[in-house]
Hints:
MutS, DNA mismatch repair protein, domain I, 7-stranded mixed sheet, elongated, Nucleotidyltransferase, domain 5, 7 domains, alpha/beta
Amino acid sequence: MPKSVRKSCTPQTRTPQTCTPHTSISRYFSSSNNRPRMKPSPPEPPGAKGLSSDHDGGLPCKRARLALQDQQDQQDQQDPDQQDPVCEPASCQSYTGKKLPLSGAGGLCSSTLDKLKGFSCTVESSVGRTDTDKDAKMTGDNGQRSDHTQQQTILTRVQLKEEEDEEEEEEEEEGFSEKGSSKQFVNPGGGKKGAEASPLTDSSAPSRRAKSVYTPLEQQVIQLKQKHKDALLAVECGYKYRFFGDDAEIAAKELNIVCHLDHNFMTCSIPTHRLFVHVRRLVSHGHKVGVVKQTETSAIKASGANRNALFTRELTALYTKSTLVGEDVNPVCRLGDVEGGACADVVSDPPDSFLLCISETWDKLKKQLTVGLVAVQPSTGDILLDCFPDGSSRSELETRVLKINPVEILVPSDLSEPTQRLLQSITNASAKADDRVRVERRDGAQFDFASAMNTVTKFYCHAQDQGSHSLSAVVSLDSPVICCLGPLIQYLQEFNLDRLLRSQSSLRRLSCESEGMTLSAATLRNLEILSNQTDGAVKGSLLWVLDHTRTPFGRRLMRKWVSQPLMDPRSICDRQDAVQETLESHSLTLNSIRSLLCHLPDLERGICSIYHKKSSTQEFYLICSSLSHLAVELEALLPAIQSQIRSVLLRRLLLDTPHLLAPAHNFLKVLNEKAAKSGNKSELFSDLSGFPALQERTEQIQTVLSAIRDHRKEIRLTLKAPALDYTTVSGQEFLIEVKNSLSSVVPSDWVKISSTKTVGRYHSPFLVDQYKKLQQLREQLHVDSQREWTGFLDQFGEQYHTMKRAISHLATVDCLFSLAEVAKQGDYCRPTVCENELQIWIRDGRHPSIDLLMGEQNQYVPNHTELQGDGRRTMIITGPNMGGKSSYIRQVALICVMAQVGSYVPASEARLGILDGIYTRMGASDNIYKGRSTFMEELAEASQIISHATERSLVILDELGRGTSTYDGMAIAYATLEYFIRDVKSLTLFVTHYPPLCELQWAYPQHVSTYQMAFLLNEPNTATDADADEELQPEFLTFLYQLTEGAVCRSYGLNVARLAHIPHTILRSAAHKARELETRVNDRRKNLKLLSDLWCIWDKSSLVQWQDSHSGCDAVSSSQTQTHHREREREREREKAAISD
């Protein structure tokens, strides 16, 4: 509803909590029941409804003001000499204690009544009283009771008018609801959300006040908002873009700009040239933003039949996080400009901007859930699809979501509860609103297979683009994938970005196990492969270590490499050969190629914007000139590349790229550089022979200009000024400037345009006609130029796939150069990849991230690792808390990932087999969104590892079973580890604080080995503290961070408590209790061992020997031993007797 403006003199008298929608000034004087009522005037037609209190949020209705004005006019006619006194505004308190000034006629003056309307929502008890004393106090003690009665009569009639208005409005609302009218522009004034705005005026019931409800612009905005209710609309109004209603309040809050009331709606505005900055900000906060532009110009409108009507406006573009492609939002900034701060206020694009669509299908026969997904990146043209079964934990879906890293997710409204919880945990993972994933919920009917198949069939039947998918290939996809593809087509059609779905070369399946190593969602988090676990940033992750790329498209490719390492030994070796040659070669050719990649714009997104026909002339010229420059430079380097570069991969990439980029020069030479950089599409094309429509329109303009130039002769003769020429002032062209002293010679039919103190500027009738014609031709030329520009972009789109392939080659070269930079860091080696042998053999391995974060050389303690698939394939690692166990097992896994990416690794030597996956269970944390406790989360991850790991996998289990009681946790850990040793036979690193698990080394000596993180135990120094009790002092450890063979039975947790600055009294008490519990456990173990030994004694001589060896043992007395022996002898005798019988 239009937001009301309530004026209050003092804060104390304003009580908005008691306001009602129909409060008016008559309320203050309506409590008297014995006053005569005036006969109400006939109601006006429903269509003539004015601004009632329902429409302005509490302001007196317009009819009330008109009724008061009519009454005042009647009083003026009766006494024309009587005039209203000047009324000064008084405070709210003055109405309760001071006398109100009255007119001579005995009624309130009109200006006072107008001021009282500002207090229509403030109910004061003193004002509401209507007894004689209060009336006398309000009107003075002069006894003018008849004046007050007349005043009450006027206000009573106003009240009756308002009651009639309310009845009419209720009748009209009922009529609209019966017709099934939809909700209008929701809350334009910023009131309660969900409230319905008053409907547009009914054209069938004309009224003289109907047009006063909304201005023409506001009516136009309401109509646009009805079509796009879920978008913030930026409406072009001259030199600025305006937001209205709720959109204005949201935009003002997000953009930190002023929002104010204008007519009926709250509004705020932004400059036209800053549109892309503010749209990007709104989109980054998760809003859908629509840009509404004027679709006609003043010149064309002046020549049309509706010259006095409002400018037509249409929605020209919609933007969300994943669809941020278009001329309005793509700033022409090079990467160096952004980093240098020239575009510091521009929200940068994320590395990837995937739109992910998810569907679910439940198989009742198999009782299995199948998930389909299609991910599209409109800015680069990449398309990913997948179909897979998933369990209740949705771990498979979580893995793919983390790999894709979408910025927007499209889901049905009837999504299952587990999936909703998963998406909620992902979207709320970041504390920053800019980094959160936007979720778009669509009607579930769109995800039905029949509806989706119908959409897909219609879409691909009308596909005419070269290289588009054939219908047979699309319908052969899995049904869950088609259920995603249908809604995705409908969604992208709203943004005019559906063209890329017809491109077959960009399509690839995500979960092709033969292509890359499997890294589960838990592995990506626990190993910090793509982001760190502290603040979610890239710094400290493996991607941060490996990413030294110089181009945006190279950075995106590097992320794909890291998240899905290779499994093909030949491909790994090709990358290693290219990295080695780049590292060791001193050729200037590679240095020249590396310099060419610096400060390039985002070519991949640029050509995709051109492919969508949403590119500006500036962006097109920047992209096309960069591609042409690369083609020329690489063409010149071809002889050196052929003679100097030995790497097969590098040679193939660099030799193919120049001829793929060659078409860019043909497009570049057609353009006028100056016009392209300025955005002038009317003069964009240097040769118009290929554009006949533009050529014809340009000739027409030149004809008019020639006539205007020839008209100067006649003007000079008329003014007798041979040197006179046209002038241009404030955009007005062809002005005839005449001094004011000579104005008498100016013909009377000339039109005066402007003037100063000294001169006047005119247009002759001929100039008026020709200038109007010239403006129309220019506007028509602009329209023709836009049409030809779109066709020109379409021609470039035919070369899209060729250009994309060339840019992919450049991205691969950039990533190889990046891996070479990693290898230069020192103490890195080229790992040997073993194709047929499963092993992990690392000498002096280091954690890549920690080693780099420490900064100083030789600060990280290296360690050896040896695992053999057919030998000792399991390592049980023990040691004190904070001894470096978790860092060590992460180090082993990250080195394996780096090797299969094709990088050098931080070790002196490494021989590694090909792993099909790395699975980890580390850390301890609950998951509130999934409804899991810490122990449940721990076991769910372990269950996923058990079901997916193979004998070619690396499994890392860190302190499994610690989330429950000691015996339950120990039993679960023991059984799980034995299962991996005996059944799965995978390479396993198992970290534990349970000493009994080390017994598995004796059960499986060929496959299990035990290790510990070395440390030094420093005994308490009693010499420095004579009163110190040695038994009650916790140990102090010095960590060596060196992996050594053997197991350690204690974890020395009190040492960590000391490092955490736990109070000393608590430490002493804990040390005493720990010693007591440890003694009790050791005694129990000793007793069990003694009983075990006794159980094996069968004869008297053995018993005597045992007694001699344990004569000093206090655990079992000799009498107990003899009694036990006699009982065993009796049992044997009974058994013999039973056998003889």
